[in-house]
Structure formats: C-alpha cells, structure tokens
Amino acid sequence: MKIIDGGVCAAKGFTANGIHCGIRKSRTKRDLSLIYSEKPASVACVYTTNLVKGAPLSVTKANVADGKAQAVICNSGNANTCNADGIEVANKMCEIAGKALGIAPADVVVASTGVIGQPLDVTPIANKIDELVHGLGDHSDLAAEGIMTTDTVKKDLAVSFTVGGVECKLGGIAKGSGMIHPNMATMLVFLTTDCAISSAMLQKALSSDIKNTFNMVSVDGDTSTNDMVAVLANGMAGNQEITAEGPDFDAFMKALNTVTVHLCRSIAGDGEGATKLLECVVTGAAEESVAKTVAKSVICSSLTKAAMFGADANWGRVLCAIGYSGAPVDIHKVDVAFKSPAGTVEVCKNGAGIEFSEEEAKKVLLEKEITIQVELNSGTAGAVAWGCDLTYEYVKINGDYRT
How does pLDDT run across 147-165, given as a tens digit for each residue? Predict the structure, then answer.
C-alpha cells in the first residue's frame, strides 16, 4: 500500500467538482460540491447519534437503503436542520443533481453543513447545477473546499492497495473543525474506492473502522446534528468482489483505516482556533473499552486542552480527567509522559508526580503535535484518541458564528 494523489478522484470512474453557487455570502468561498461515479456503486453510511438530525441524513438513509448510490451532493453555509421544509429541500437537492447527471434521485447521497435553523433556498443550487456538473473532473481539491465551513485547510488523502493481485485505490475528503465530539461520526467525510466489495461488507468495514477512528476524535465536546461518513465502491478496479471476511477484506480494511486515521488527525489538528494537534495514547489497560474511555476523557478535558495551549506540563489535569472518566482504573498504577518532536518528558509515576525539567517540558509542549502518553499498567489493551488545544480564538469563532 502507498500514499497517492487524487483524493476522491484517485479511484477509477470517480470525478468531482466544487463551486460557489450563492448559499454563502462570500463569493470567494465555494459552497457546493459534487462527487460522481461513472457506474452505480455499493454504498455504506454512518450518521450522528444526536437526536436532532439534519434533514439530509434522513433523506440519505432512505436513498441508500438498497445499498446503492452513484453521486454525492453537499452544500456548506447552511445545515438544513430544524427546518419545517427540510426533508422537501433535501429531496429537491437529490432531484436537481439526479436530473443533471441523468441518474435516479434515489441514487444521490445528500449532505449539508453550516448554520442550524435557517431555511435553505435551493434556487442557487438549481441555478448552478449545470456549471457544477459540466466542471466534473479530477477536482477533489475543489470538492474539499466546497464542504468547508470554519475549516482552515482542505482535508484529503488517497492510497493504492492490492486485492487479489489487482491494484485498487481508495481516497477521501473531509470537513470538520468545530462541533466535533466522539459519538459516532463527528464530521462530514466522503470516501470513494474502485475496489469491488458488496454493500454489506462495505458497511461492515465502515462500521468497524469508525470505532477506532472518527469515534475517537473530539474538538469541543459538541456532537453535530449533520455528521455523516459515506463511502462509495464502484468496483471498476476489476477485482473479484469482496463478499466475506478474509485476506482481501483485511487488505481493504487496512487501506480504509490508513485514510480515515489521516483524516482524523487532520480534523483534530484543524480544530477551531487550534494551534496544536493532541494525541492521547493509552496503553496497559485491562480492556480496550477502558483504554478508549480514558483516552477520550483526556482529549475532552478543557483544562488539559488549555494547559497544552499554554505549553504547561500540568499533568495533574490528565490524572483528573482519568479519574472522572468512569473507567475502572487503579490510579496508583498510572504513568504519564508528554512527547513531541522535541523529545519526551516523564511527569508522573504510579499516580504521583516525579521530578522533571520544566524547561525541557516547555520545549516539548511548544511543538505543533503533542502526544500524551498514559500507561495504566493493568493489562495489554490500548487505544488512541485525537483532539486539539483550547485557545482564545475558539471563543471568538463561535461567539459570532451565526452573525
């Protein structure tokens, strides 16, 4: 397996585009994206667990019930959530895209992201759909721009891998910067592959993968209403279709995980106002569930996040987060260390502080990527979670997000 260029257009038969249609006020920001497969594809999706769900999720869930899809349309700037006509508008988006592409509206995955509770006018989408379709090509970067809200960087990756001696490709784009918390899939992610795999196995792969990837990301503790991860597999690589577990399924899972982990790190590192990517690596847990609970609790701790922003080796905040996590942990066995490209500094042994150089710790914590290492010394299970620091800028961004 190797990293390649192309994002969602790396796989055979997939094209994409992103334009400004007029949903967002700024003409310099793209606000409408489209991904298209030449052939009908197997599809799998996962959705937010928030009881308040965007209308596009309900429409998409109905559309993909047959396990097939051929396109994804997504707008930014308006979430189409908590609107009386939300379902009607989401269906209309599918109709507009389907007609322009010459496919059934039911074969369209629809998504929206942006402000909640504001009616979404489909007129700008209808007016620009022909331009969007005519511009389809090797434009994963434009599609990635079109789904961004407060994101500051595009998020994409693609890999090539081998299944049964046949080269396959898998790529993805994502958006996510704020309103992100580990509770299903915490952002919008669109993945494409030319690997032939049944919709049932594709769903199994995605549902399994998110447990250790997208469910382990938190920026601010808020679970969005519009979170969705969708993957389309059109089979154009020509491999024998994956219909059961085995070496081919394992190869697919590895490729999928490589892309999703990269996107998780990209999302966490681009958290609203963030200056640092935080990674919590928990080892020595009695069970994986314990490791996951501890890792997420540390990543979600506002006090820990603030300490990392200030490059303050306040390890007590890490212990505090472990203590209230609810995980059955013997706190007197816990070791903590901070690691970055500048080095590693051990700060806690057996649940108690040890001598360390504050100067060296400062150097470690001033880096852009920081790993919080937690050793529980109670078993062999482990887990990883990703997040970011908490800065003044986060409040500024969200204080006037709507206005």
Answer: 998 888 899 999 999 999 9
Digit-coded pLDDT (tens) for 295-325: 999 999 999 999 999 999 999 999 999 999 9
Does the pLDDT of residue 182 top 80, yes or no? no
What are residue 68's DSSP bridge partners? 42
CA dist., res. 327 & res. 337, Å (int): 20
- Closest Cα to residue 264, out of 203, 205, 216? 216
Tell me which of 251, 269, 287 is where a domain ends: 269
Residue 402: helix, strand or coil by DSSP?
Answer: coil
The answer to whether 230 and 9 are in contact (CB under 8 A) is no
CA angle (297 as vertex; 295, 302 as ends), nearest 5: 125
pLDDT in tens, 223-254: 778 889 999 999 999 999 999 999 999 999 99
CA distances from 23 to 146, 176, 258, 300, 313 (A): 11, 19, 34, 33, 44
Q: What is the total count of domains within the chain?
A: 2
Closest CA to 12 of 167, 144, 188: 167
Question: What does pTM read for this prediction?
Answer: 0.90
- Residue whose C-alpha is closest to residue 97's, from 112, 83, 113: 112
Catalytic site residues? 186
Nearest to 22 by CA among 116, 131, 111: 131
178: pLDDT confidence band, cut at 50, 70 and 90?
low
Quote the domain boundaries for residue 287: 277-399
> In 3D, which of 362, 221, 227 has the Cα closest to residue 305?
221
Q: Quick one: pLDDT at residue 401?
A: 65
Q: Is 22 exposed, middle or buried (0-12, 13-18, 19+ CB in 10 A)?
A: middle
Q: Do residue 53 and residue 177 come from a single domain?
A: yes
Nearest Cα residue to 268 out of 341, 214, 320, 192: 214
Q: Nearest 5°: phi and psi at 118?
A: -110, 130
The domain boundary residue, chosen from 236, 269, 302: 269
Enclosing H/E stretch for 399: helix 392-399
